[in-house]
Design goal:
The structure holds 2 protein chains of 2 kinds.
Chain A: H1 4-20, H2 27-50, E1 60-68, E2 73-79, H3 81-100, H4 109-128, H5 132-141, H6 143-153, H7 159-188, H8 193-197, H9 203-220, H10 229-236, H11 239-264, H12 266-292, H13 297-316, H14 321-352, H15 363-366, H16 368-381, H17 388-403, H18 405-430, H19 447-465, H20 468-488
Antiparallel strand pairs in A: 1-2
Helix pairs in contact in A: 1-2, 1-4, 2-3, 2-4, 3-4, 3-11, 3-14, 3-20, 4-5, 4-6, 5-7, 6-7, 7-9, 7-10, 9-11, 9-12, 10-13, 11-13, 11-14, 12-13, 12-18, 13-14, 13-17, 13-18, 14-16, 14-17, 14-19, 14-20, 16-18, 16-19, 17-18, 17-19
Chain B: H1 3-7, H2 10-13, H3 15-35, H4 46-65, E1 72-74, E2 79-81, H5 83-101, H6 104-110, H7 116-133, H8 137-155, H9 162-193, H10 198-205, H11 214-234, H12 243-250, H13 253-261, H14 263-278, H15 283-306, H16 311-332, H17 335-361, H18 380-383, H19 385-399, H20 405-419, H21 423-449, H22 463-478, H23 484-498
Antiparallel strand pairs in B: 1-2
């Protein structure tokens, strides 16, 4: 059991190596092999959940390999209640990313599968790395395969610009984090996270370091002034790229906040809370309003993601148990809901090759099954009670209300706006008269697509009706996190 | 008193250099007699001599690795053998060998038939070995001149090309100029102190660097400044970089490869030795010079490269930028700084070899065009996916994107800069690394996403280059997984040198 996590980490990467040896003309073999590798990874990662010990806040499945022993840096991996579900989310989403592009990706199939499996390994490494420098390494390496996925398999000419923006925006933020990490290493002589949790930084230095980390994570989240890359990247990426971008990559930033910024710099986190609140509130309201005037389906979901991530940062910096747990839950839920919405758009795009809202209307007449699924996910997006997002947003509002009622009130308007744009979108696309533009192209879901959507519906409803099963492993770790902050601050 | 007693072990210590120069002379004789022989129809000996030259370099390498001494001074302390010089000599020999190795096909294709090319390369390598060992102004200057003379001729070696001749002349004029400045600095210091040995400077000034009389100190600083400027010229660091783009662009690509890979190693070695040993107590006076030069190099390297359309010019500007990073490490003046410089050089060496091997191989067999503009590389990912893949990996690595090798060198460099409080420099380095990403990405974009009028169709890859490209690409990809060897080696060298 001890090395289970390492196996999960290495499995997709080794699988990618195996795929490299398959001749690229045998696309069917490559597809089946890639899918089975990612499914096996998912099954293995379920074992993590089974064997996870809820009663302790310690890191579990810890494994260490020497990297630069004389500089005191090691490949040091382990998970706790906070990172467990991100691992599961990643391994859950990747098989669907591969499935959804079963037919739509026809060029460079081998490279596509290799890029996705490598990306999976990198993302998993980010979530379970317990060494600050190596965390940075994997946090950045995610850029490489993602850059290629957007640039090579994206849909239009504008994709190059989008890939550039994605790469450069996220890079400039992260580079300052690198300096901060080196400064921490210079001061403490270690990059081991567990040692750093118990080391103290002076207040001035905390401010500096917190800000450098914030620059990097805020771009990844993305928070409002630096969110420009996200809609571009979403629109230009292939469906699977959007799914992984919304499902996992956005969580890297918020995960960074909860794993690094808050416990490492507790005083600075308290000090900068008003800043984060302001940015989140602006993010929620502004992004929601922007969503209302978008005409591209993917941009609508992209901006609504920005709004939801605003909720997440709000919850994280409420710095109490309800808020943080709600934020973690909303991250998971957003991972399911936004991904499945992008899958829905992918289904439409595969048929008509357009994403503009004005070409759609009255789909309920020709695609009834699709309309049902789309309805469920839209309801998830506006956090209707009974869906997963509701639990998350409710907990966040409870948490924030305790620290700052005014902010909570402002954030609550975001829920109304969310309802507005979601329902209006659904209304425009599904109801009304059938538009004649692509009338011969509309077909209902085929079997592959149906079975892609089914697990997502299951997860969204399951989390909505019985969230305790997800919250239970988090309790101890989150309580420990909050306790840690109070003890210091 | 007989001869062997006078030099005792000195001749053993200099055995690699002796062997290399004697064998080069033998090759020269062989070439002169055989290539003019009417009986054999005056054969072109380029390939033969090149392979023999490679063999000589290999033997020199073996001799160097098996020398019984780890550190000693010889020839009345004008030359020195220590782990640092061993490190640099190893790299230099490898560099010379590899740059000859990857150019073999280029010689044939471009019909460079003069075997003197290889001999000049061997002579300059030999003088680099001497330069790395130099620990005295006289030996340093002599070695620099011998090296530079060979390089001037090499730059102009493609005699039927105007650009190549122009490159040679420019290189000669500016090289001579910078040597003059260097010599002037040396003579000021000699006039003030009567010393020429690096060690003697260190001993004379140890601990009194800051407490000298103001006049003496300012004169000394002027001397140090001149010497630094001379070196910065040779290292193509800004603001003394103006000759580099023209020379590197005009010279034949094989020569550019050699220029980019090898000579800077030797200059860097003696630069490190002079400044970190000889002038260590003047850290306050030269640290600021190097900091400014480093800043400017980073700035000009990244902004200059953004505007380039030609591949070789782009690479020159990128190498100016990399020189900025190296100077950052030197300016920090600590063991970590030195170690980061050595590590950076190692990794940069491999990446440069990879890039030039690829550029040398990009030659359309049908039309005879060599790659010249960046846009020539468009659609390379379609016609030659593996080449495009390794080139983009190396470029990403040069930009310092983890988890590639370039990142490992950069993070340690930034660490060294931070630990000696060069905060501004570190932040600026980060920013320019971001900018450099932009132009490296542009090349990658051209290869992967751009449509082209006439893509390169028929690149024939020879065995030599394919081996080199494969090995270096693997290094760039997998260095991250096990960086211990390189880290330990450089740390050992740095500690023994400064510790």
């Amino acid at each position: 059991m001890q090395s289970l996590l390492s196996v999960i980490l290495l499995f997709p990467a080794l699988g990618a190596l195996v795929l490299l040896c398959v001749p690229s003309v045998q696309t069917r073999l490559i597809r089946i092999l890639g899918l089975s590798i990612s499914c096996t990874t998912f099954v293995l990662s379920l074992l993590l959940w089974v064997f996870f010990d809820h009663s302790t806040a310690k890191f579990q499945f810890v494994d260490a390999i020497d990297w630069l022993p004389f500089l005191n840096m090691h490949f040091y991996i382990g998970i706790d209640g906070i990172s467990l579900f991100f691992i599961l989310l990643t391994t859950f989403l990747v098989p669907f990313c591969l499935l959804v592009s079963w037919d739509s990706v026809q060029k460079n199939v081998k490279e596509y599968f290799v890029a996705f499996l490598l990306l999976e390994s990198f993302m998993l490494a980010v979530f379970c790395m317990l060494d600050l420098l190596l965390f940075y390494v994997f946090f950045e390496s995610v850029l490489l395969p993602m850059f290629l996925i957007i640039g090579v398999w994206g849909s239009r000419e504008r994709k190059i610009r989008a890939a550039y923006q994605f790469f450069l925006y996220t890079l400039i933020g992260s580079l300052f984090m690198l300096l901060a990490i080196l400064l921490i290493y210079f001061q403490t002589g270690t990059t081991d996270l567990q040692v750093l949790f118990v080391s103290e930084f002076s207040l001035q230095r905390q401010f500096l370091l917190w800000f450098a980390f914030f620059a990097s994570f805020a771009v990844k989240v993305p928070m409002i002034p630096v969110h420009i890359w996200l809609p571009e990247a979403h629109v230009e990426a292939p469906t699977s790229g959007s799914v992984i971008l919304a499902g996992v990559l956005l969580k890297l930033g918020t995960y960074g906040f909860v794993r690094y910024s808050i416990p490492l710099f507790p005083d600075a986190s308290v000090y900068f809370t008003p800043l984060v609140y302001t940015m989140s509130i602006i993010g929620i309201i502004y992004a929601s309003l922007t969503t209302l005037r978008q005409i591209d389906l993917k941009k609508i979901i992209a901006y609504s993601s920005v709004a939801h991530m605003g909720f997440v940062t709000l919850g994280l910096f409420s710095l109490n148990i309800q808020g943080i747990e709600g934020a973690l839950l909303l991250m998971l839920s957003h991972g399911f809901v936004a991904s499945s919405l992008f899958l829905c758009i992918g289904v439409l795009y595969d048929r008509t090759h357009t994403r503009l809202v004005k070409y759609y209307g009255g789909l309920v007449h020709v695609m009834p099954l699709f309309s049902v699924f789309f309805l469920i996910f839209t309801m998830g997006n506006l956090s209707l009670p009974g869906t997963s997002s509701f639990v998350g947003e409710f907990l966040i509002l409870v948490g924030v209300f305790q620290t700052n009622p005014f902010v909570a009130t402002c954030a609550a308007t975001g829920m109304i706006l969310g309802g507005a744009y979601s329902i209006w979108l659904y209304n425009r696309v599904v109801f009304g008269n059938l538009k004649p533009f692509f009338i011969d192209a509309f077909m209902d879901l085929n079997r592959r697509e149906f079975f892609i959507f089914l697990p997502f519906v299951f997860c969204v409803l399951w989390m909505g009706f019985y969230p305790e099963i997800f919250l239970e492993p988090m309790h101890t770790s989150v309580a420990n996190l909050v306790q840690h902050g109070q003890w210091r601050g | 008193m007989n001869f062997p007693h006078l030099f005792e072990n000195d001749l053993y210590a200099i055995l690699p250099e002796l062997y290399l120069i004697v064998s080069t002379l033998v090759l020269l004789l062989f070439g002169v007699f055989y290539s003019t022989s009417k009986k054999h129809h005056t054969p072109s000996l380029m390939q033969t001599i090149s392979w023999l030259g490679l063999f000589c370099l290999f033997c020199t390498f073996c001799i160097l690795q098996n020398l019984p001494f780890s550190s000693m001074t010889f020839f009345y302390t004008t030359l020195i053998m220590d782990p640092l010089s061993f490190f640099f000599k190893t790299l230099t020999l490898l560099g010379a060998g590899v740059s000859l190795f990857i150019s073999l096909q280029y010689f044939q294709a471009e019909e460079l038939k003069d075997f003197e090319y290889t001999l000049l390369l061997l002579f300059s390598t030999c003088s680099m070995l001497l330069l790395i060992s130099a620990s005295d102004f006289i030996s340093m200057y002599l070695a620099i001149e011998m090296q530079s003379l060979c390089l001037y001729v090499l730059a102009a070696s493609k005699r039927n090309s105007e650009f190549s001749t122009e490159a040679g002349v420019k290189y000669f004029l500016l090289g001579a100029f910078s040597s003059g400045i260097l010599l002037f600095g040396c003579s000021i210091l000699y006039g003030l102190t009567g010393l020429t040995g690096f060690q003697s400077f260190a001993q004379l000034f140890s601990g009194v660097g800051g407490s000298l009389a103001v006049e003496t100190q300012s004169f000394l600083s002027v001397g140090v400044l001149f010497i630094a400027v001379g070196f910065l010229f040779k290292l193509t660091a800004a603001p003394f970089h103006f000759w580099a783009p023209d020379v590197y662009e005009g010279a034949p690509t094989s020569v550019t490869a050699f220029f980019s890979i090898t000579p800077k190693l030797a200059i860097m070695a003696v630069f490190l030795r002079l400044f970190l040993v000889g002038f260590y107590d003047f850290l306050f006076s030269w640290q600021s010079i190097l900091t400014v030069s480093s800043l400017l190099s980073l700035f000009i390297g990244s902004f200059g490269a953004v505007a380039q359309t030609r591949v070789k010019r782009l690479l020159v500007y990128s190498s100016i930028g990399h020189m900025g990073y190296l100077l950052m490490g030197v300016a920090s003046g600590t063991v970590e700084g030195l170690q980061s410089v050595l590590l950076y050089l190692c990794i940069y060496f491999v990446m440069t070899v990879n890039i030039f091997a690829i550029i040398l191989s990009l030659r359309d067999e049908q039309t005879g065009h060599n790659v010249k503009y960046i846009e020539d590389m468009s659609m390379l990912s379609k016609s030659h996916p593996l080449l495009a893949f390794s080139l983009s990996l190396t470029l990403f690595s040069m930009a310092g994107i983890p988890p590639l090798a370039g990142f490992c060198s950069k993070f340690y460099l930034f660490f060294a800069a931070l630990s000696s409080s060069l905060y501004f420099l570190a932040v600026f380095g980060i920013l320019s690394s971001m900018l450099s990403c932009f132009y490296y990405l542009r090349v990658i974009k051209t290869m992967y996403f751009d449509q082209s009028k006439q893509p390169f169709q028929n690149v024939t890859m020879d065995h030599e280059k394919s081996w080199v490209i494969t090995l270096t690409t693997f290094f760039v990809l997998f260095f991250f997984l096990y960086p211990n060897v390189a880290f330990l080696w450089t740390q050992k060298v740095a500690l023994l040198f400064l510790g």
